């Protein structure tokens, strides 16, 4: 697949190779937790669950037990998709939120809290594909929560940023459990400082022992619902009791001999596929770097314009995904890309704070898994005595009448977190993902093109300088982005802005498998504390 596994650029680290199994995660302890489960006889699915559960402990700045999750699972020669995102409460409505004085959905607090899907997702993955008991798979996470662990540098950085913001804006009593849980010393923990959460450990143990039943139909469910309602929210015990994750058919687009796979809406993976469907009509060989970047940026802008207009809960979409991914529609959108930057507008196809991990075992199974509380710590609500930090996914709903993603009871919102997967000729190449809000489809597009168009190995594909479209003609670039190229893009009408903070450009993981030897090749993003654990 790659021109070379050695890349001459000194900034690029080398990939890691192994045969027995591999787990790539944004935090070393979580990757090691997954590897430990593999060594105990677990498969890639068990390892992914173990790493995901550990991440709720060792990287609470980006996810938690109250998160949503999505997974793409390759096993026995077939790709399966799991949507473990939760819906809005049945008692909420756009009218009720507007009547409470809100012109748009609040970002923090109890109103944007939706049903957490992650625990049910772990249990369902374990039930259908796992080899070890869920209680055993969650044990590494339980140990870290119970005994403590030294906080990693990137987590400490985002922890401090969140604490500095929250101490200014979280003045109501229902936010106090966040501070007692995540800032027990009256501040955020520093890099290398030990932090533990016994409440978190007890909750994880209950989830493991009951297959997540306690979370949705037991004592935890009752405590969650009672606390959310006391804080002014709408979530009820009946919403939790009714929840089940959904197995879905992954969607894909063909790209230069490969198939790129994503979870269907309500996830925004469709945006990445639409962008690739547009750019595949262009030639990215040769040395015209400026034109290459220009076309990528313009394609992503057009794909996002469509995605933000049409993507929502698939049961509420009025636009067929097949139309949006058709060759004809891709060609029509491609024809709009000229020599200068444009303001993106949605087309008419009917007219003709996240963690990502990848896991693989030596038997051929591979998992692309992502979970998130959203915006770092989520809603700011921690259910007292449980360690459960609740997500604020409902903040992405629109209150606008007629909007595709309008808030409705029991509806899933447009979702930013997306796992990716690559296949070729019906065989698995492997899982990939780039976390980070609306950067995610942009990261997916860039690492896929780095891999396929430019022949970069996983580590180089992740470490390459990234760009990020943020709206209109504004494009952020990293400090390592070529300055001459940035200036040339500006002359084409792009509003190029260099940012010193690489945190918004996503943090990714990749594992590829050689179809002939079964050798695994993994990379982890240099923008975070991640590692590839392998044997």
Q: What are the defining features of this structure?
A:
seven-stranded antiparallel β-sheet; 2 domains; Serum Albumin, Chain A, Domain 1; 19 helices; alpha+beta; 19% strand; 535 residues
Low-pLDDT runs: none
Task: Enumerate how many helices there are, as a single number.
Answer: 19
Structural class: alpha+beta
Distance between the termini: 23 Å
Number of separate domains:
2
Average per-residue pLDDT, rounded, comes to: 94
C-alpha Rg (nearest Å): 22 Å
How many strands in all?
A: 21
- Overall geometry comes to globular
Largest sheet: 7 strands, antiparallel
In which range does the helix fraction lie? 25-40%
Strand line-up across the major sheet: 1-20-19-15-14-9-8
Strand content: 15-25%
EC number: 2.3.2.2, 3.4.19.13
Subunit structure: This enzyme consists of two polypeptide chains, which are synthesized in precursor form from a single polypeptide.
Keywords: Acyltransferase, Glutathione biosynthesis, Hydrolase, Transferase, Zymogen
Protein name: Glutathione hydrolase proenzyme
């Amino acid at each position: 697949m790659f021109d070379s596994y050695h890349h001459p650029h000194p900034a690029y680290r080398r990939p890691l190779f192994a045969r027995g199994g591999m787990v790539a995660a944004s935090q070393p302890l979580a990757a090691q937790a997954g590897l430990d489960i593999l060594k105990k006889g677990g498969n890639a699915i068990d390892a992914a669950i173990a790493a995901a559960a550990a991440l709720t402990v060792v990287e609470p700045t980006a996810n938690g037990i109250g998160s949503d999750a999505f997974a793409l699972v390759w096993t026995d020669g077939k790709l399966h998709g799991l949507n473990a995102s939760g819906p809005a409460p049945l008692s909420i409505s756009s009218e009720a939120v507007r009547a409470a004085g809100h012109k748009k959905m609040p970002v923090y607090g109890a109103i944007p809290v939706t049903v957490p899907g992650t625990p049910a997702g772990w249990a369902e993955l374990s039930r259908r594909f796992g080899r070890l008991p869920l209680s055993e798979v969650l044990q590494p996470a339980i140990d870290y929560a119970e005994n403590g662990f030294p906080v990693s540098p990137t987590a400490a950085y985002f922890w401090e940023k969140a604490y500095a913001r929250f101490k200014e804006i979280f003045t109501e009593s229902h936010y106090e459990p966040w501070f007692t849980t995540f800032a027990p010393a009256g501040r955020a923990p520093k890099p290398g400082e030990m932090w533990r959460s016994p409440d978190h450990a007890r909750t994880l143990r209950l989830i493991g022992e009951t297959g997540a039943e306690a979370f949705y139909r037991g004592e935890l469910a009752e405590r969650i619902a009672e606390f959310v309602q006391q804080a002014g929210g709408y979530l009820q015990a009946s919403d939790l009791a009714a929840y089940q994750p959904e197995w879905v058919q992954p969607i894909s687009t063909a790209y230069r001999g490969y198939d790129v796979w994503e979870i269907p809406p309500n996830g925004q993976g469709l945006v990445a596929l639409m962008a690739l469907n547009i750019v595949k009509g262009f030639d990215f060989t040769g040395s015209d770097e400026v034109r290459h970047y220009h076309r990528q940026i313009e394609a992503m802008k057009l794909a996002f314009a469509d995605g933000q207009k049409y993507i929502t809960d698939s049961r509420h979409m009025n636009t067929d995904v097949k139309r949006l991914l058709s060759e004809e529609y891709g060609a029509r959108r491609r024809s709009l890309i000229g020599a200068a930057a444009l303001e993106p507008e949605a087309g008419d196809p009917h007219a003709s704070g996240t963690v990502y991990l990848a896991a693989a075992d030596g038997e051929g199974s591979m998992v692309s898994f992502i979970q998130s509380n959203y915006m770092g710590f989520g809603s700011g609500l921690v259910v007292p005595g449980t360690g459960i930090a609740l997500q604020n996914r409902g903040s992405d709903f629109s209150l606008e009448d007629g909007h595709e993603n309008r808030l409705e009871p029991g509806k899933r919102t447009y979702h930013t977190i997306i796992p990716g997967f690559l296949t070729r000729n019906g065989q698995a190449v492997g899982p990939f993902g780039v976390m980070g809000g609306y950067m995610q489809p942009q990261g997916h597009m860039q690492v896929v093109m780095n891999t396929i168009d430019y022949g970069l190995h996983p580590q180089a594909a992740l470490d390459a300088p990234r760009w990020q479209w943020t709206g209109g003609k504004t494009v952020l670039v990293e400090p390592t982005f070529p300055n001459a190229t940035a200036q040339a893009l500006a002359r084409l009408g792009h509003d190029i802005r260099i940012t010193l903070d690489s945190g918004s450009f996503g943090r990714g993981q990749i594992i590829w498998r050689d179809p002939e030897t079964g050798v695994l090749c993994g990379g982890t993003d240099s923008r975070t504390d991640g590692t590839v654990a392998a044997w």
